[in-house]
Structures are given as C-alpha cells and as structure tokens.
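Hey team,

Filing this mostly as a record. A colleague (T.K.) asked me to run one chain through the structure pipeline before their review meeting, and I want the input and output archived in the tracker in case anyone asks later how it was produced. No errors, nothing strange. Just documentation.

Input sequence:
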Amino acid sequence: MPLSAKDLLSIARDYWRPDKHFNYRPENSPEEEKFLDLWELELKKMDPWRAFLRDLGESLPDFNIGNATATCDACFRCSVYPKAEGKPQPRRWVVVGCLSILAPVYTIYGVQYSGTGGERIVGIFDSLPPEMQAPAEIVAKRMEVTFGVSVLSRELAETPIPLIVEPKEPPNTTLFHALFISQPERVP
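Output structure:
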C-alpha cells in the first residue's frame, strides 16, 4: 500500500524541524541527531549501493555512472552521464536517481547544462527530454528490483510541507526536498 502525503509528512517531521530554534546553538536538534544516527546506520549498508552502481554500469555501458551521495541529503544518489568520447555535445545532461533513506521511495530527475557558463536547468520527474528517458527508465527499474522501493509520484513529491530543509523554507519546501534533496541541481 503506497504511503500517503500525511504518512510521508509524519516521517519527514522526525528528521526536519518547522523552525530555526537550534540554529547557532552548539548542540544539534533532536531531529538532526536522529538524521545523523540514521545515516550512520545507512553508511554500513554501502555495499549494496556500490553493487547497484556496478550493475547499473553494466546495464548502461555508454554512460558514466557516479555516486553522488552526500550525507547532508536524505538519499543515496547516482548520476548517469553520457560518455562524450571527445565529441562536443550540443547539450550536456545528467540523469539522477535518488533512493530515500527515510521512506521506501525513489525518484528520478534530470539536469541539463546550457550555455557556456554551465547554467543548470533541472527537469524533475516525468518531464525528461527524450535523450534522458531510456537511461532514466533503466535506473528506475533497477532501483525497484534491487531495493524494493516505489516511485514517489510527482503529485506527492510536490506537496508543500511546513518544514525547513536548508536552504528551503516554507512555503517552498516540498516532500521531494525532505525525502531526497533540497538542491537537486547540485550534481558533481
């Protein structure tokens, strides 16, 4: 049975605060302590994530696969870049797969780089350009099979929540930010 927005918000409240009462204090908030403890447990499970990345590389031989996980975010992240092989590309892009550590859900999004300054344009969820769709489908299928998770629908992901996930603050914070990452455009 899929989790509802209410269920997911309840989970997010365990790890994110609605206020800044602990900003500039020497101690962490109870929510941050719980988040750090969860990451400590999750980091002990890196072998399955590394195996997933290796398998993904075998399934996508024309792509570079990277581990974009950062423990300040609420997910494991992988990046899938097309191999350039010395050819200039008119548009550079990356497909990103996120596996939440807070709930049994994942999401896929894409980032396009445009212009000479490397400006990044994030296209989240089902609005991926055609060249990103095939690798995104493979990443999605592998996440579902390997980790037994389901995709977080766009509707649920865009649900506003009354929590702060730095640098996002209400009314701009969504379940996507709390369950995955607050700055999806940041891809190494």
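Quick notes for T.K.: Residues 39 and 45 are 10 Å apart (CA to CA). The first helix runs from residue 5 to 13.
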